[in-house]
Every structure is written in structure tokens, then in C-alpha cells.
Amino acid sequence: MTTAQSSSAALTLTRPDDWHLHVRDGAMLAAVLPHTARQFARAIIMPNLKPPVTTTAQAEAYRARIVAALPPGVQFEPLMTLYLTDNTPADEIRRARASGVVHGVKLYPAGATTNSDAGVTDVMKCAKTLEAMQDAGMPLLVHGEVTDSAIDLFDREKVFIERVMEPLRRAFPALKVVFEHITTKDAADYVRDADAAPGLLGATITAHHLLYNRNAMFIGGIRPHYYCLPVLKRETHRLALVEAATSGNPRFFLGTDSAPHPKGLKQQACGCAGCYTALHALELYAEAFDQAGALERLEGFASFFGADFYGLPRNSEQITLARESWTLPDELMVGDASVVPLGGGEAIGWRLR
Ligand code: NCD
Ligand code: ZN
Fold it and tell me: Which domains does the chain have, with CATH numbers?
């Protein structure tokens, strides 16, 4: 089934897509979009702008700003999403489906992460809207963490499965659901073992959750560029994520969750959550799959399973990754500010040609 060609020196595969991406807006958008467009053919664009993208009209306008920010001649398809609120009308789902440019609706539990204040306070408040999504075949993209302050930060994904994910999937058994950026063995096992028809349940996995455990945030001092949400977990969880990503199970596919923040907003007393990986996403995934001895499984995970889940054609172009060491820039300028890529200043063993 795989068409990937691998030798010790290079790996050629069908051009991948990024099924979970933050590109922001304005100057930041202009600075980061070329990185993604160089690596990926398409990306699911997260709607957590300030204010959030809650309507189809806003998604269409945001899509036009993204397309306008592409370097001349570059082919890249932004796949838009809506930000679900307690008050998203069911009609908005019909408009979104009819637009042809909205490919998912994002559930942020209110307060769970960056710009999630307008998120959902209780999913059952959205029952009518979720029913409309189920009828329209519109995927629900889920940030799977409870916000209950009594629950330990490291347990919020696990508790979300019991309290929200499982009841939600029981209430809407034909709803397409993506468990976004899973970070625990609990979530990987849940997605692997869930009783769901093909194409109804998927999960994205980031490169940083495949490569790092929570120690990365504290080695020699506090390292804000390794802080993201859901937060990095223990090594046992990282190993379970690597196993899931390299298993060949089509429920697991690539989503970088590349989330740029200006360096000053990450390096402060209360730093923002998010790792910037759009610059070198495929190189990071290649490192993770290579370490697991599973490079031949990268193409399914990166280029096929997400497209199949979203009902979109697989890409036909190819890309080549060379086994070649290079040093990541310390930071990238964005107007007067800068963004620090994950692992900035360090060497990486793969390079996109
Ligand atoms: C994301 C962001 O900065 O928008 N941050 C992150 O740590 N992943 C939000 C998100 O996806 O949770
Ligand atoms: Zn995200």
C-alpha cells in the first residue's frame, strides 16, 4: 500500500498535510505561513483568533487573508474550521457545510488553552448543533482536557475521556470526532480500542509529543519553549504515542499543533502555551519515526490517513527528506518580535529538500 521510498540517505513520500495548525493573523500569519506551505499541501486551520472564528462568513474572510499571505506561486490549501460556542446555531453548520471551505468545528472547553475563553462550558448545551454536525458529516475537533481546577493538570486528558469524550460519543454515535493532539497512553488506548465505524474516530499526534517527555520542560532550568497544552507527559505516555503513530492504524494521523507566540510572551513570568514547529515539522516527525525504526510507516500517518478521514483526495506530489544534519535557527524575526522554533539553535538529522 505504501509508495514511500526509503534508503539510508533519503526518504521520499507523498506530500503530507497538517491536520491541526495555528497560523494566527496579520504579521505573524505572513511570517509563519510560508514554512507550513513549504512542507504541507493542506492544513486544518485552528479558529482560536482574538476574536474567535465562529461563523462561516468569518472563516471565509480568514481563508482569504491566508491565501493572500501565501508567497507568489505557492500552492497551499487552508482547510477552515469554526470555533464552537455555547450559542453556535445549528444553521451555522448548514452554512459551513454549504460553503465548501469549512472542514471541521473545534470544541475548546472554556478556559482550557490559549484563546479559549469563548469556548464551550458544557457540551450538552450544543446538542442541537452537534446533531446538525452529525447529519452533515461535519467533524468535531476536540481539545480533550477538562478544566476542573481540582484535577491535576497532568490528568486532565485522562479525566476528559471519562467525563466528556465517552458520553459525547454515546450521545452522538454517528458524529465524526477527532481527539486532537493526544498526549497520554489513556487517549491512545481509547482511540485504538473504541467501538467506532471506520472514519468516525481519529486522533492527531504532534511531533513534540512523540519526541519529548515532560523532563524537556525542566532540564537545567525552566524551558518555556517546550511548554504547550496539553502539557508534555511522562515517558510511558510518550512511548504509547510513538507506538500509536507508528502502528499503521489509520485512526492516528499527523497534526503539528504548531502554535507560534512571540518570544517575549513565552519567556515571561506567565508564559504562553505553544510550540513552534511549522519550520521543521516533517524533519521532527522523521526523527521520531526513525528512532522507532518505523520510517516506512511515516507516509500513511503523514500523507494518507488524515485525508481519508476528512474525505479529501490524497495528494499526488512527492517530497523528499534527506538524512542530513543542519542547525535550526535560534529565532525567526516577525516584525519587531521573534519566534523561537522548537529546538532552536540545536542540530536536527533530517532536512526537507
Ligand atoms: C495553542 C495556541 O497557542 O493557540 N497552544 C498550545 O499549547 N497548543 C492552543 C491549543 O491548541 O491548545
Ligand atoms: Zn492547537
Answer: 5-352 (3.20.20.140)
